[in-house]
Design goal:
Number of strands: 16
CATH architecture of the largest domain: 3-Layer(bba) Sandwich
CATH topology of the largest domain: FAD/NAD(P)-binding domain
CATH class of the largest domain: Alpha Beta
Order of helices and strands: EHEEHEEHEEEEHEEEEHEEEHHH
Bound molecules: flavin-adenine dinucleotide
Largest sheet: 8 strands, mixed
Number of domains: 2
Structural class: alpha/beta
Oligomer: single chain
Length: about 350
């Protein structure tokens, strides 16, 4: 019997696992992919993420997780009317495979057991404990007093537990060799409705130009992507020599009010699967903070499961209000996000 089984070795799961193992609890962290695993991401660690890494892991983000340019100097938004807003802020540029693998290693150093290539296929609250069916080389069951489901956006497991699907935004981004007349130290977000149904973006990773769009109707992905490329060619003299990679992914569709699903009984949700996500798809800080708070709540009220969800809700109250403020701020500057006002 484990004290905790944590599902998913992303920022939410790794932070929770590290925190619980640090408290001397018996923790199993399962990850369906082989680590280091790939995650579609712009890989911008905003200052808040850097601060949380320091706070929860007691170290600076290591250089080996970063790509060039290693420092991100902030975000530049262009709103629906073409007006530019600059937000200068210290940040880092990481590859998620290296960053998340480093976080998982920290959880292991603190005593968590890690099983990669292991998918949680089912999970059931049995009152005194939770049984989790795992699929790796074989299919077997483990038990824990609590489960933290940190499986990220798709939520196949959560759907089996709750029988519900949440809305998604589809993201599409390409990596390209070429040139552009923009400063590679910034992340650029474009909120014009003619370029995407949510946002379009540009940043640089290891000299590759990353161009992306997000849409509510997946069949319109290519249409918006082509519009965005034309815009970048015209406005910023984008020249693509060769496209090296293209990838589609999903993000939660955050709605006004930023509703969060904390869990049921002994099964808690953290990170994207719970609905924690900031505008422009910034979810690493929200993942780490919610993973930490879920772990703290369950560890503090270990023998009182009826109090855990309320403690988790209280622990994330400031994160939720930060999310709401941020979403209504972007709703205020761009028509595309107006429903968030
Ligand atoms: C295109 C794009 C760009 C982004 N850019 C940024 C950015 O620049 N900065 C930023 O802060 N955020 C960014 N985000 C958001 C960020 O990637 C997510 O919010 C963050 O990864 C969420 O963390 P998480 O721990 O909740 O989930 P994840 O990081 O998705 O981790 C979940 C883990 O669970 C595993 N898993 C899933 N199901 C199971 C299962 N059944 N059993 C076992 N394991 C399972 C998955 O393989 C995965 O490793 C971006 C997102 C996208 C799509």
């Amino acid at each position: 019997m484990y004290d905790f089984i944590i599902i998913g070795a992303g920022p939410a799961g790794c932070t929770a696992a590290a925190q619980l193992a640090e408290r001397g609890l018996k923790v199993l962290l399962v990850e369906k992919c082989r680590l280091p695993r790939y995650k579609s991401c712009s890989g911008v660690l905003i200052k808040k993420s850097m601060d949380l890494v320091r706070l929860y892991f007691g170290e600076e983000t290591p250089l080996h997780t970063m790509c060039t340019p290693t420092d991100n100097r902030g975000m530049i938004f262009t709103n629906d009317k073409g007006k530019e807003y600059r937000f200068e802020q210290e940040g880092l540029n990481v590859w998620r495979s290296g960053f998340d693998n480093w976080l998982a290693g920290k959880a292991v150093e603190r005593g968590a057991q890690l099983r990669d290539c292991t998918t949680a296929v089912f999970c059931e609250d049995r009152g005194e404990f939770v049984s989790v069916t795992l699929h790796g080389d074989k299919t077997y069951t483990e038990k824990a007093r609590y489960v933290l489901d940190c499986e990220g956006v798709v939520g196949a497991l959560k759907r089996k537990i709750m029988g519900r699907t949440d809305g998604y935004i589809t993201t599409f981004q390409t990596f390209n060799r070429g040139n552009i007349e923009l400063d590679s130290h910034y992340f650029y977000a474009y909120l014009q409705p003619e370029l995407s149904q949510y946002d379009a973006w540009f940043n640089v990773k290891d000299e590759l130009l990353v161009l992306g769009v997000s849409v509510k109707e997946p069949e319109k992905t290519e249409y918006y992507y082509e519009k965005f490329l034309s815009y970048m060619k015209k406005e910023h003299h984008l020249y693509i020599e060769e496209q090296t990679k293209a990838e589609k992914w999903l993000m939660p569709h955050i709605r006004p009010g930023c509703t969060v699903d904390y869990g049921r009984g002994r099964i808690l949700f953290a990170g994207e699967i719970a609905g924690f996500l900031n505008p422009m798809g910034e979810g690493i800080s929200a993942g780490m903070e919610s993973g930490y708070q879920a772990a703290e709540a369950a560890a503090s009220y270990f023998e009182y499961p009826e109090k855990v969800l309320e403690a988790y809700r209280d622990g994330t109250a400031s994160l939720q209000s930060y999310m709401r403020r941020q979403w209504s701020f972007v709703g205020g500057i761009a028509e595309t996000f107006r429903e968030m006002e």
